[in-house]
What we know:
Largest sheet: 6 strands, antiparallel, barrel
Number of strands: 23
Distance between the termini: 26 Å
Strand content: 35-45%
Strand order of the largest sheet: 3-12-15-14-13-16
Shape: elongated
Helix content: 25-40%
Number of helices: 5
Amino acid sequence: MTKKKVFIIAGTVVVVAVLAGLMLPKILNRSKEELVAEAPPVVTAQKPEIRTIEINNELIGTIEPDSIVHVTPLGSGEVTNVAVKTGDTVTAGQLLCVIDTKQVESTRIAMETAKITYGDAKKNLDRLTVLHAAGDVADADYQNTAGQVEMTRLQYENAKIAYNIQLESSQVTAPISGKVESFNISLHDMISPQTAICVISGDGGKSLTFYVSERIISGLKAGDVIRVEKNGTDHEATITEVSTMVDSGSGLFKVKASVPSGDSLATGTSVKLYVTAQKAENVLTVPVDSVYYEAGNPFIYTYSSGTLKKNAVTIGLANNEFAEVQSGIGADDQVVTTWTSELYDGSKVTLAETAAETITETETTQDNGPEVETSASAQ
């Protein structure tokens, strides 16, 4: 009888132990789920950083010589001689072509006639000067003759100028040294002052011309360095001119830059160029994804002692990565860089590094749990 009771009691102990072994994991799991459900959201945060923000624009420009001259004649007539062709290298003053203006000879004759008239008048004045000194010519007559002589002198000077102009018009020369980029006339062509005879590009490097909008022009100035790209090769250019007037043809602002290493770039070709349209140097910045907007007004969440604070801020320049913060937060604030729908002003949160430490501690506790159960079962 006594043995039977002992057997029943021992069986009861075994059943209780088995039930405890089955229920304990469920109890532990339930506690863990409740703990997770009640835990505040996990966020990451970092302090703002001082950096320079730039916004770059890709544009298209045209390569030109540093100096370029469009040559036109001074007079009209037939081309009687052509001295150069496209691609030739010329020096300043070199003959390009000769024009028969039909007026060179007539102006030469007029000049020679005026010269003779002036010479005769001057000889007559010299004779009267001697007579006037002797008292044989009245002052009025002498002054009248002197005035006529001065008139003939001026007529001769004007005739000489007219002849030189016609002579210069008939012989067109290169105004600068350089390369003849294009030569647009042929022998026996009839040309006038409206005719473009040729284009000469000066010796030296190349220049770059491009057009920008009002938004971009405000960030450009003479001396700025820009990057030029052609067929995968980069060249450095320096802005030399920034127009303050809108170009009537394009509605944009014209900008010119010097490309000292651009000898390999053919005149007239198009190139890519990259300019810094806007720049903010050494400013307080945050990741652009940490800036939120409400009714168009920007704000940033900051973290302090487990609580979020919603800060109205003023945003300056921003690119794809960072945004300039002009006011609203300080350099020592912890800016929240993650977003969940549970964030609001005053909400309780946990920093990611703090949450990681908590998880490590929980896992350590759970790892010790089976040892306790094993010991209980053993007992």
